[in-house]
Design a protein that fits this description.
Elements: H1 3-7, E1 10-16, E2 22-25, H2 31-43, E3 45-51, H3 57-68, E4 72-74, E5 80-86, E6 98-99, H4 104-115, E7 121-124, H5 135-143, E8 148-151, E9 155-160, E10 170-172, H6 178-188, E11 194-198, H7 206-213, E12 218-221, E13 224-228, E14 242-243, H8 248-260, E15 265-272, H9 279-286, E16 290-299, E17 302-310, H10 331-339, E18 344-347, H11 360-370, E19 374-378, E20 381-385, E21 395-398, H12 403-413, E22 420-423, H13 435-442, E23 445-451
Parallel strand pairs: 2-15, 3-14, 6-7, 10-11, 21-22
Antiparallel strand pairs: 1-22, 1-23, 3-5, 4-5, 7-9, 8-9, 11-13, 12-13, 15-17, 16-17, 18-20, 19-20
Helix pairs in contact: 2-3, 2-4, 2-7, 4-6, 5-6, 8-10, 8-12, 10-11, 10-12, 11-12
């Protein structure tokens, strides 16, 4: 770390109970859809328009990578991108590393898309991303013929050799991961023959849906996807317009918060309702949450709906393992809700949480224990014994630089009796840059302070 980095102030939150959460809001665009829209639009032939694009650091990093690879991307207004696609073979190599920032989705999907290019590439990331495992995507891509070198243990940077002839494979994911599935499908665009990906537990199908929207023949159903590579055929992605729905993962914090803050009545507009993404909705309803789905419709090929959530008396549940892949990014929000529920919430089959931006099982367990909630960790889950969170004034909780931990602890703090400090929250900008102003507008007690 440079001296300049040492001198930069740390951003913390002061969080405390506010007032009942009320109003109608729309959370930012879906991060997963925004990443994929930029990628496929860049690889398509023609000009694509993306509306509802997430103006977060992660998605901007992905757009910047494609600009570095020769794709013209315009931003005529906030949340809009005009992408001048260069086709599958039109990217130009860069002599400089491609910086993915904090975006694990960006790095893993780029590994697939770049494995079939004629030029070498180096993918780098920030300190957090540089600790995230990439072997799970490197190994199946190697079976397709890619050569990707990494640091010890399969960590970034990733050095991708160009000019490799890829071949289609039939691959069963050992661990449910939409990112790995997507990387293989993107590499499959360049492979000879068919690429098939199978899953024991179906994961979100944004890549499959978007490939179809861009005109690529693909077969898919829950737990299965298959496509044939371009090979020598005149197959191409065709430019299209994409409407990005509001991000369910961002909405998750509001679903949890309005369920547990007394007197709340909050409506979230146009939330993405992809069935492979909404496991938290099932879990909260099973816990007794009062969430009404209305105005269900389709926008840009994705299901969306308005969600009205009112305060309810939650009870602990055993979260079915089958729901875990459909809510893997929403577990921090579930932990916050479970801390305020009656009884015990049990989670298992979620070892993936230990290799996110932080060890989210560990981080949430430590944070909730600091608020007086008993949490028993296991290797792949936790038992959360709900109650009434409380804390000594100005207690400091480390978010570990993880945006979802920071936001989840801000939710839990709304039910504490004292102000707490949530440390190191700058990374919230990766997915939700306006979180503080939006939550304050509906009743959260939250403000930012700088620390040396």
């Amino acid at each position: 770390m440079t001296d300049k980095a040492h001198m930069q102030p740390r951003h913390d939150w002061i969080a405390a109970p506010g007032r009942p959460l009320r109003g109608r809001i729309r959370v930012p665009g879906d991060k997963s859809v925004s990443h994929r829209a930029i990628m496929l639009a860049a690889l398509a032939e023609g000009v694509s328009r993306i509306d509802g694009f997430l103006e977060g650091e992660d998605t901007r990093s992905t757009a910047a990578v494609f600009q570095q690879l020769g794709v013209r991307i315009e931003a005529p207004s906030s949340q809009t991108r005009i992408v001048h696609g260069v086709g599958l073979r039109g990217l130009r190599g860069s002599p400089l590393p491609l910086d993915c920032g904090n975006a694990g989705t960006g790095m893993r999907l780029l590994a697939g898309a770049l494995a079939g290019q004629s030029f070498d590439s180096v993918l780098i990331g920030d300190a957090s991303l540089s600790k995230r495992p990439m072997r799970r995507v490197i190994e199946p891509l190697a079976e397709m013929g890619a050569i990707i070198d990494s640091e010890n243990g399969g960590l970034p940077p990733l050095r991708i050799r160009g000019g490799r002839a890829l071949r289609g494979i039939d691959y069963t994911l050992p661990v449910a991961s939409a990112q790995v599935k997507s990387a293989l499908l993107l590499a499959g665009l360049y492979a000879d023959g068919e690429t098939t990906v199978r899953e024991a537990h179906p994961t979100r199908d944004y890549t499959e849906r978007m490939l179809a929207a861009f005109g690529w023949p693909i077969e898919f159903e829950p737990g299965f996807a298959r496509l044939r590579g371009a090979g020598a055929a005149a197959q191409a992605l065709r430019a299209t317009d994409v409407h990005v729905p509001a991000d369910f993962s961002s909405a998750a914090f509001f679903l949890a918060a309005a369920s547990i803050v007394p007197g709340s009545d909050l409506t979230l507009e146009a939330v993405g309702m992809n069935p492979r993404r909404t496991g938290l909705l099932q879990a909260l309803r099973e816990m007794g949450a009062d969430i009404t789905v209305s105005a269900a419709r389709e926008e840009g090929g994705e299901a969306v709906a308005d969600l009205r959530v009112r305060t309810a008396r939650l009870r602990g549940i055993d979260v079915p393992v089958a729901w875990v892949p459909d809510m893997i990014d929403e577990f921090p929000a579930l932990f916050a809700a479970a801390a305020c529920a009656e009884g015990t919430t049990r989670i298992s089959g979620a070892a993936e949480l230990r290799v996110k931006e932080s060890d989210r099982l560990g981080a949430m367990s430590v944070g909730l224990r600091a608020l007086g909630i008993r949490v028993d960790e296991t290797a792949d889950g936790a038992e959360i014994h709900g109650g009434s969170p409380s804390a000594q004034a100005r207690l400091v909780i480390d978010s570990r630089g993880d945006h979802r931990i920071a936001m989840a602890m801000a939710v839990a703090a709304q039910c504490c009796g004292e102000e707490i400090v949530i440390a190191d929250v700058a990374n919230v900008a990766t997915s939700f840059p306006d979180f503080e102003s939006l939550v304050r507008s509906i009743g959260f007690g939250l403000r930012t302070v700088e620390s040396d």
